[in-house]
Design brief:
- The protein is of the alpha/beta class.
- The protein has two domains: 154 residues, Oxidized Rhodanese, domain 1, CATH 3.40.250.10; 123 residues, Rhodanese-like domain (Oxidized Rhodanese, domain 1).
- Strands 1-7-6-2-5 form a five-stranded parallel sheet. A five-stranded parallel sheet has the order 8-13-12-9-11.
- Helix 5 crosses helix 10.
- The longest helix is centred in the middle third of the chain and has 13 residues.
- The radius of gyration is 18 Å and the shape is globular.
- InterPro entries: Rhodanese-like_dom, Rhodanese-like_dom_sf, TST/MPST-like.
């Protein structure tokens, strides 16, 4: 199944039975101390301009277990599946995801559904910006409340799609496992940008910045070329991280498009790792 859809193809599908279009956008900005990101709802932006008939799934409210000590920690599979069901995702749904922030949040929503075992899901190439650039219609105003799914889907968990810090620590330096930072090169080297509590990268890890992946518009062969340049083998198990698992989701989503099979997001990422001085980090050229 195709993992992306063009704006024109989605426009032709709007209104067909079973189709559900979700906007997963969250707005983020650096904290005053530049140590992490602060997050705020994109609800007002969604009500100002959205793909007709789409639903806003706000991860701040629905997909963040605040009892865990890092940002956007995934809730239990049952709680996550219930959140999707409350927004209409159920057995027989065909889901298309988009965002208005460059693709990271659409990919994060995709990867959460992938983790839960829900497969009939695609990402809109280029997001809302590409939809508008194509001259396609938008709607505004208060959005109607989502209609819960008539038949919620039962999670069929892919546990290997999410890694924890113990798996990451055990994977460092292991042949056939690539732990990859999806943040910028300057953050990877500790030269600038948000530090996520300590500057630099998890020691011994590689770098493929998520912005290079161009909001799901980069051809799979171009994604594969970037991965090769970063030293990521096609048969490697790839564990991606970033600040809070969001850009990392963009990276693994695009590697999946390019044919990689064994992929995981480190859910805690640097927002967890950077807080613990006992966990190894390094700076300087990789």
């Amino acid at each position: 199944m195709m993992l992306t859809v063009t704006p024109a193809a989605l426009a032709a599908e709007l209104g067909t039975p079973g189709l559900l279009v979700l906007d997963g956008s969250v707005f983020q900005r650096p904290s005053p101390d530049n140590a992490t990101m602060l997050s705020e709802t994109a609800r007002a932006s969604f009500e100002k301009s959205r793909i007709p008939g789409s639903i806003h799934l706000d991860a701040i409210d629905w997909l963040w277990d605040r009892s865990r000590p890092f940002r956007f920690a995934l809730p239990s599979p049952e709680a996550a599946a219930a959140a999707f069901a409350a927004h209409g995702v159920g057995e027989g749904s065909r889901v298309v995801l988009y965002d208005r922030v460059g693709g990271n949040w659409a990919a994060r929503t995709f990867w959460t559904l992938h983790w839960l075992g829900f497969d009939d899901v695609r990402v809109l190439e280029g997001g809302l910006a590409a939809w508008k650039a194509a001259g396609l219609p938008v709607e505004s105003g208060p959005a109607p409340a989502p209609v819960p799914a008539a038949k919620p889907f039962a999670p069929r968990l892919r546990a290997a799609a999410i890694a924890d810090r113990e798996e990451v620590l055990a994977a460092l330096g292991v042949p056939g496992v690539a732990v990859v930072n999806a943040l910028s090169a300057e953050q990877h080297e500790g030269r600038g940008g948000l530090t996520y509590h300590r500057p630099g990268r998890i020691a011994g890890t590689r770098n493929l910045p998520a912005p290079l992946l161009a909001d799901a518009t980069l051809p799979p062969e171009a994604v594969a070329a970037l991965a090769a340049q970063a030293g990521i083998g096609r048969e490697d198990r790839v564990i991606a991280y970033c600040g809070g698992g969001i850009a990392a989701s963009n990276l693994v989503f695009n590697l999946k498009r390019a044919g990689w099979r064994d992929l995981a997001v480190y859910d805690g990422s640097l927002d967890e790792w950077g807080r613990d001085a006992a966990l190894p980090m390094e700076t300087g050229p990789a």
